[in-house]
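Budget justification note: compute hours in this period were largely spent on complex prediction jobs such as the one shown. Inputs:
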Amino acid sequence: MANRIALISDIHLSRARPYFHANWEILLEELAAEAPDLILISGDLALDGPHREDDLAFARAQLDRLPAPWHAVPGNHDIGNARPDLRGEAVVTEARREAWTHYFGPAWWSLDVDGWRVVGLDSLVCGSGFPAETEQAAFLHGAFAGAEGRPVALLFHKPLCDQSMLEPAMSQSFWYPAARALVADALQQGAVRLVISGHLHEARDRMIEGIRHLWVPGTAFVQDMAVEWVPDRGGRRRVGFMMLELGTTPRAFPREPSRMFNTDIGSWLRDGIGHYAVIAGPAPYLGLTTAPFIAEAA
Ligand SMILES: [Fe+2]
Ligand SMILES: [Fe+2]
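Corresponding output:
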């Protein structure tokens, strides 16, 4: 019988700013009922890891409550966005990458399950010019070589593209066009059969140029359900997660627990990332962080 894999993404946890913690608690209950054999997490575990390391520490501690072994890849709200920055967001640095490794382990990894090889990658380091970029490329080359005919599923935070691997636009939403070279050959040669990503907080299951691309919905929030500020990409904007069974043809089952809060932060993004940085970022937030509500009695 195939392993039951839970795909979860974009949980955006924070001890200081626990805006989305209710959905995390509900997710834990849902996963306990699903009883998956394995959990894969496609990034954005923290609300704002680049500015507040405790978000990473808190998210890591919360993962101990998951009901199955887990493997995670970093998101832009964990280690910073890919370089160059397009909209005023914190970018990936060596120090931020090291913080990820400290809490969550290697940012790229490989595991074999149900006749497949699942390879997790750091999609934010691509194009950085850091030594880690070269190290990741060498690791990926070895992972393909060692697959020995097994189909490969790739897992990373940002989707590779919207409609085509050849689309030229640079967008915060997808891998930058030049960075796609890391995996383009493997996709063309058929070594990769499934690509799993998060980041957009939308669920989508689509064949693109012969490869299946699965977008895992966010658990924390949705972005612009009314499609007023964020472009319509044909995905479904609801919080939730997915169950996956690999096999000859992978089967994906979206889950949208009705009791989860569909908090829509589209308005945070209306004027770029700036408002997210204010709401989620490092500025003191009295009451939730440093200041007690009621003074201790003398
Ligand atoms: Fe996210
Ligand atoms: Fe993201």
